[in-house]
Fold these 2 entries.
Entry 1:
Amino acid sequence: MGLVVQKYGGSSVADAEGIKRVAKRIVEAKKNGNQVVAVVSAMGDTTDELIDLAEQVSPIPAGRELDMLLTAGERISMALLAMAIKNLGHEAQSFTGSQAGVITDSVHNKARIIDVTPGRIRTSVDEGNIAIVAGFQGVSQDSKDITTLGRGGSDTTAVALAAALDADVCEIYTDVDGVFTADPRVVKKAKKIDWISFEDMLELAANGSKVLLHRCVEYARRYDIPIHVRSSFSGLKGTWVSSEPIEQGDKQVEQAIISGVAHDTSEAKITVVGVPDKPGEAAAIFRTIADAEINIDMIVQNVSAAATGLTDISFTLPKAEGRKAIDALEKNRSGIGFDSLRYDDQIGKISLVGAGMKTNPGVTADFFKALSDAGVNIELISTSEIRISVVTRKDDVNEAVRAVHTAFGLDSDSDEAVVYGGTGR
Ligand code: ASP
Ligand code: MG
């Protein structure tokens, strides 16, 4: 008998009908002879609605209380799901993250899992129950307070439980059929990927792909837990994310040269204008940013103008951190020495990802050609061994993603990319 951990996202359990549909699917897995642990997210947009509500009573809600509030979302769906399963004649028990043994650090709203002690879950499934676990939450080892893992954290709960329970597989059920070569909401001809390596998936996740969270993939890679991403709405096979290619029948799935195109419109660009071109300037700028606890992404420094000896340095960062970064730099203006700051939140990033680019020359040239044919201007460029990213105008992003997707032969013949649910909120 195997043990499967299944995770159902908010759009899969958005209403009573959805909960009943998910209950049936879980019972199916149990009837196939498995022990089943199901991790659930809050129903539909519940988490967003709770955040809105909190902000109506306090502009900056206290982290501890916000966590207490948000974890209620997952408690609702876990209890309802357990009831629905019992109604189908099977035994189920629901558990909060804390009861399931998800131990975290004490950073509210974005806690990290430091240990999982799933004793109660093990006992529950050994007694023949289906165990339902509230995703996205844990309990702090030090403060004993309830914590949450950051938005979308239920995926990480599922992978962490799968690792702790030594599960055979972790299935992540969502509102699309798997991982696609681009966001199916933008590229109608995006193709479902049969298998993708942890490395390529990490790059896609880090560069805007929302189907799996970066932290969750990181966790899966560390403990070598294969993830099967699939839809709870269709019965189709999804995408396997693992260290080695999976076999499908007698067909071995090969490593693709290019795995996909990711895009991200959540970043902004800051340009520090008129920086003296001398040692220590970049260090001073980025020390200021780091001290404000802001993570940056790309950096570009221009050559200095011969006449003035001054240069410009641009970098990108999450839009949400924009205000904080500008304030921190302004405060240190005399210490750093620069003329002015420019802030631009109308940018977007497009990234091409694939381990095959290490060994295939010309990928970069083809990428830039596709962008130029689409009339898209490039503002910043950055690369890793298996990724090329560019920053463009935000309004050009969708067009650029489609152009690059076509140029690299990723378009599918059929419109197979179906988005089954979710408000995309
Ligand atoms: N309910 C939480 C959120 O919406 C966690 C999750 O969905 O994974 O972010
Ligand atoms: Mg959600």
Entry 2:
Amino acid sequence: MKVLVVGGAGYIGSHMVKMLGQQACSVTTLDDLSSGHRDAVLCGEFVQGDMADRALLDSILSKGFDAVMHFASFIQVGESVQQPAKYYQNNVVNTLTLLDAMRAHGVNQFIFSSTAATFGEPQYTPIDERHPQQPINPYGRTKWMVEQVLADFEKAYGLRSVALRYFNAAGADPEGQLGERHDPETHLVPLVLQAASGRRPHISVFGRDYDTPDGTCIRDYIHIQDLCSAHWLALQSLVGGAASQAYNLGNGQGFSVQEVIDTAERVTGRKITVIDSPRRAGDPARLVADASQARQKLGWQPRYADLATIVEHAWRWETRFDKSS
Ligand code: UDP
């Protein structure tokens, strides 16, 4: 199978490229390296460029592909509030350019990275696919818009897609070759582990006054490898002729920020300095997925559902240069 991975040099994309290579796919990565890393693309062909560049897309897609996976989005909620134009341009307009180029070259199978942020403030948990989608920030709205575009494109053009709504992706390649390298890093698990390793002085806990048992926010952390295996199954379902679908992806179990810190202290054997900080704008108290659709329809089975395992793999990545750990 020939797959184009747009954004394949980023955190999730790079793990996906590796998995596709292991599944004997012929992979091409297109990435502008604005946030990705060339050395994270472990197999296949690499093209440095922008998905807004239609001529470049034409030259790549004219070689013939079975499917496109799209990971090239901006993902910071706070930044999306400050700079919405940047988010609508890249996450919506540039995605339309990609979809148009796919249509022009007869590539009609698409895997899209969506997000729990399309749901907005939860009306109930765990969140299943029928939960109303009322995103509360530009980031969530860009992803929700593309989901609607995809539904229309299937009806009008027969372009079939799977939108995978990630809850909290975390962890690292179990074989230790890849991990999370955002700059700036904003995600809880790597930040907590940087506080454990000494790369940061402390971790700030954003709010202790939420309506949760310990007052800190609850999230559903999903191992990067399990996320990628869901993409692989989604791709196989499309190739098998399945209609377009959206799936929520999480373990169905929530952990509080404090529980993540406690787990990290146990896994690393280090004391982590915690500073209590104000709430971060736009953070719902509790986001937990009901992923039973993905289990039933895709046959998805998470292998690394245990939070300690997720943290352990991320810790191995964090300390990869530290021979004393
Ligand atoms: N969080 C925190 N301190 C940090 C970063 C994150 O307390 O330095 C909290 C954040 O408020 C949220 C949870 O950790 O409740 C997960 O945040 P993250 O940014 O990793 O993912 P998100 O849930 O925003 O997708």
